[in-house]
Design a protein that fits this description.
The complex is a heterodimer of chains A (114) and B (115). Chain A is mainly β and 114 residues long. Helices cover 0% and strands 54% of the residues of chain A. The relative contact order of chain B is 0.33. The chains are: A mainly beta (114), B mainly beta (115).
């Protein structure tokens, strides 16, 4: 069975500071990996995904993530935080075959301090 | 192009009642998945449908059922509602049949409150 652990349910950074949101996964086969963002009272929006190929993935809004197989991690980073980045962030994995089933972590609420 | 649409946006029911939630996928998408997001948690997979057939089911009781129509829209039904069914129900659509590679695009959700 696949599972996702997001370290830190709440992360607070200052505007302009580095954003680092941690995600570790457990899977018997190499999964596909995703980061979604959820703004208040809205659905989920895809930030980026890793399927195959280059392990450093660039997404929207200046975010990027690096797949590290040896560490079973897929941490999300952004060099300089903006007030508009305040939201809930979810890491998710999906099996490479079978049903399109996303397994989500518990989420990390990102707060940006002015 | 319109994204994934869901209706209604909000719903209040009482315990024991039944509810039907609706989802229209992005034009051209043939797969629809349903997720339940309880407050403070990540979404949990309920069902995936493709070409009107169930392709995957999560760990939910038989009170939960769904179907997909020829136009690829979908309905999620929940019978005998419990207080614990209160959640945001998300619908996601994607193009292919199976495999987790393709992006799932989410709708805004239906917020269900069971009293």
């Amino acid at each position: 069975a696949q599972s996702v652990t997001q370290l830190g349910s709440h992360v607070s950074v200052s505007e302009g500071a580095l954003v680092l949101l941690r995600c570790n996964y457990s899977s018997s086969v190499p999964p596909y990996l995703f980061w979604y963002v959820q703004y208040p009272n809205q659905g989920l929006q895809l930030l980026l995904k890793y399927t195959t190929g280059a392990t450093l993935v660039k997404g929207i809004n200046g975010f990027e993530a690096e797949f590290k197989k040896s560490e079973t991690s897929f941490h999300l980073t952004k060099p300089s935080a903006h007030m508009s980045d305040a939201a809930e962030y979810f890491c998710a994995v999906s099996p490479p075959q079978g049903a399109q089933k996303l397994v989500f972590g518990q989420g990390t609420r990102l707060t940006i301090n002015p | 192009d319109a994204g994934v649409t869901q209706s209604p946006t909000h719903l209040i029911k009482t315990r024991g009642q039944q509810v039907t939630l609706r989802c229209s996928p992005i034009s051209g998408h043939k797969s629809v998945s349903w997720y339940q997001q309880v407050l403070g948690q990540g979404p949990q997979f309920i069902f995936q449908y493709y070409e009107k057939e169930e392709r995957g089911r999560g760990n939910f009781p038989d009170r939960f059922s769904a179907r997909q129509f020829p136009n690829y829209s979908s309905e999620l039904n929940v019978n005998a509602l419990l207080l614990g069914d209160s959640a945001l129900y998300l619908c996601a659509s994607s193009f292919p049949r199976t495999g987790g590679k393709e992006t799932q695009y989410f709708g805004p959700g239906t917020r269900l409150l069971v009293l």
